[in-house]
Design goal:
13 strands, alpha+beta, single chain, globular, 258 residues
Length: 258
């Protein structure tokens, strides 16, 4: 059970793509007349700082605390925009690592018996690689080969569907009052099984550069809920891209002869 929970922890902390039940096509068409998907996403981009502020952010370093079942686990994340994203979560003295780059991904999960760096399967990589972009998958989506669609509205919340060039579908809920993304529903992998993940984002704060980031992230995997509290954010910190390279597996000790 402990291994199952820790596996969930890793998947949830890195959740990216989304699956959400749709409104009818007719409802989407009516809403599209009032406001287009591009207009809604444009307001979201403006709310998190706009293109000017976003363009100034080349790298980001964060320190967080991941709470699951009352236990706090320290986590660090380093990002270089468009190059790589790497997160490390310390659990009981061991580190669980997930890393995405513009060319592929790899992970280390001692809790699942994977003590050596292991390349990510394509489906896992494609679902999470949008994290290498600091402003997220919605920013400059067309240039990345993605498409967006207004998929419905529930009260003050718009639902935007993002489809990547790899056909990974994501749904973002955007508050029409604040224009922030308030939740994301996604599909992830855990123990080789598909799981539905709902990620809620809140406590948005403006950085010195004008770029806005959420400091509170709550994740629901159905069987388990966890909370991520961001403690520290540093923008444009010098980060060596070499940190994203997959290390070589540790060499086995040489056999001794008598």
């Amino acid at each position: 059970m402990k291994n199952l929970i820790r596996g969930m922890l890793v998947v949830a902390a890195l959740a990216g793509a989304i699956s959400l039940s749709a409104q009818t096509a007719d409802t989407g068409a009516v809403l599209a007349k009032a406001q287009t998907a591009d207009e809604i996403v444009g307001k979201y981009i403006a709310a998190i700082g706009g293109k000017d502020a976003i363009s100034k952010v080349k790298s980001m370093y964060t320190e967080s605390s991941v709470n699951v079942m009352g236990s706090d686990n320290p986590s660090t994340t380093v990002m270089v925009d468009g190059v790589g994203y790497k997160t490390e979560i310390e659990v009981n003295g061991t580190k669980i690592i997930n890393c995405y780059t513009d060319k592929g991904g790899w992970s280390v999960n001692p809790m699942a018996g994977a003590t050596d760096p292991t390349p990510m399967p394509d489906d896992v990589y494609n679902a999470g690689k949008g994290q290498i972009n600091i402003a997220g998958p919605l920013y400059d989506y067309a240039a990345k080969g993605s498409k967006i669609e207004l998929f419905g509205k529930d009260g003050n919340n718009y639902k935007i569907k993002l489809t990547t060039k790899e056909s990974v579908e994501s749904f973002y809920v955007i508050d029409s009052t604040t224009n922030y993304v308030t939740s994301v529903q996604s599909k992830g992998k855990m123990q080789d099984q598909d799981v539905d993940i709902t990620t809620k984002l809140s406590d948005y704060r403006k950085t010195d550069l004008g770029f806005v980031v959420p400091y509170a992230i709550d994740v629901d995997l159905g069987q388990l809920a966890l909370s991520i509290a961001v403690k520290k954010v540093e923008l444009n910190k010098t980060i060596d891209p070499a940190v994203f390279a997959m290390p070589k597996p540790a060499e086995a000790p040489a056999a001794t002869t008598k």
